[in-house]
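User: Hey, my collaborator sent me this sequence without any context and asked if I could get a structure. I don't really work with proteins. Can you help?
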Amino acid sequence: MIGLALAAAATGQIAILQLQVIEGEGTVHVPGVRSGHALSVSVTDEGGRPVAGAAVSFHLPENGPGGSFVNGLRTEIATSDARGRATVRAFQANRVSGRFQIRILASKEQARAGTVSFQYVGELSARSGTGGRKWVAIAALAGGGALAGVLATGRSRPGPAAVVPVIAAPGLTIGTPSISVGKP
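Assistant: No problem. I've predicted the 3D structure and written it out in structure-token form, which is a compact way to encode the shape of the chain:
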């Protein structure tokens, strides 16, 4: 084995690849929605030095939780850059909730490495037939209604702080509600 490693070093070939997920592990995707969460890996050689030009393939499961990449396929290929990084940036989740794994394989010359990244497709709510849009409307109405109720009381003296209900939906953030008075 030592002779093989020395021969590979003498010819400038990479003998061993190491592959590590550096961004996007454990991402929860909203069912049926295109996600912009990046999944990045680092490709290094046996000495921990970045490997540029390695072909890195990302493979989604054929059935169950998962989805497809923006190319419409379950496989996406990226090439590692000068820092040894390879990234896929977009993913279309299917509507099957649960945990799944993305198999990741890297190769350069005769060297190969593989790993997996565990991802999740969140659960669809029975009430959210239109996806996340219904949650946005509900949250906006609830937050705006609470604020309107506080303003309508017309308190001139300090009182207890208003309680604004928080309605959470996966992958959704709602800012502070605002009310405008006057002509639109």
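In plain terms: The chain has two domains: 2-121, 125-184. You can pass these tokens on to your collaborator as they are.
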